[in-house]
Write a structure and sequence with these properties.
298 residues, alpha+beta, Jelly Rolls, three-stranded antiparallel beta sheet, 12 helices
């Protein structure tokens, strides 16, 4: 094994000829990966030399601690921290002296690269906290697999679409998997909401379910999801209503009562606030389109 290498590391970089094809492809040019890697329990850091001026670096610490320097500022990172910034602004990355870390990184570019960076980081370069997601590792492995097969348009389009999803996962706030939601009392109430869409659940009931005061529950829930509990519960009800409205044999009145609304008029008002159209118009618009089973030749 080479000095400094580990038994658990993966890396792939886009060759220059493929890089040029990506930049000129209408489906890839807005956002595309140039290099991606993973290193486990080592002191390795990605090389920052000879990078293109329009490229950005995404760096994520899955385990361990370290630091990075941007211009004159030094920032420390710990488990589940990440940062995104132009590669040209990063002058050093390293694990803490005498310690190893497990890291993911990717270099990317494209017309939307700056917008993605601002979306993930906001207005500063301080490290941000990401939720650990099992699906993120699966996305990473899938991207690497297709980078080995990148010498055709289909794989180029797919791997860059997959990479976009991978990058955006770092801003994801909700712990969707039930196994994780049980560890977070506020998030666990989402499953309770989903199981009781037919009821008029109150904020007090949800807070009690979480074992928190109403004010504390609302603060924690909004921090996790960027929505209030009742906003999310209402949105879930309306999404279920949209599903039922596709059935021509189910009346709007029946849907309203089935979702715990006071009456059809209250339901219609809330539905329009969320969806922008009345349930009657929504039903008419969707009913005008043939069902998949009715499409000739399907």
């Amino acid at each position: 094994m080479l000095p400094g290498a580990t038994a658990h590391c993966r890396y792939a970089a886009v060759p220059d000829n493929i890089y040029r094809r990506i930049k000129n492809n209408a489906l890839c040019s807005n956002f595309y990966v140039a290099e991606i890697g993973f290193d486990e329990e080592s002191i390795y850091s990605p090389s920052l030399t000879n990078r293109k001026p329009d490229e950005y670096l995404l760096f994520y610490v899955a385990k361990g601690r370290g630091s990075y320097r941007s211009k004159r500022s030094l920032y420390e990172m710990e488990e589940n921290d990440y940062f995104v910034m132009p590669v040209r602004l990063v002058t050093a990355i390293q694990s803490f002296p005498g310690e190893t870390w497990t890291i993911f990184w990717a270099v990317f570019a494209g017309d939307h690269a700056t917008d993605v960076s601002r979306y993930l980081m906001g207005k500063d370069f301080k490290p941000k906290k990401a939720k650990p997601l099992v699906g993120r590792v699966a996305q990473f492995n899938d991207i690497l697999h297709h980078m080995d097969l990148m010498d055709n348009v289909e794989n180029l389009v797919y791997l860059n679409s997959r990479f976009y999803s991978f990058v955006c996962s770092f801003k994801l706030k909700v712990l969707a998997a039930r196994i994780h939601s049980k560890k977070d009392r506020a998030i666990h109430t989402i499953e309770f909401m989903r199981a009781n869409l037919d009821k008029a659940i109150t904020l007090e009931q949800l807070a009690s379910r979480a074992g928190l005061s109403v004010s504390h529950y609302c603060a924690v829930f909004k921090k996790r999801t960027s929505q209030t509990p009742m906003q999310l519960f209402t949105s879930m009800k309306i999404q279920r209503a949209c599903q039922w409205l596709l059935n021509r044999n189910v009346t709007i009145k029946a849907i309203a009562y089935s979702l715990g609304f006071f009456d059809q008029y209250h339901f219609s008002k809330v539905f329009k606030e969320v969806m922008g159209v009345s349930p009657k118009l929504y039903k008419k618009q969707r009913s005008a389109k043939p069902a998949i089973s009715q499409i000739e030749g399907y």
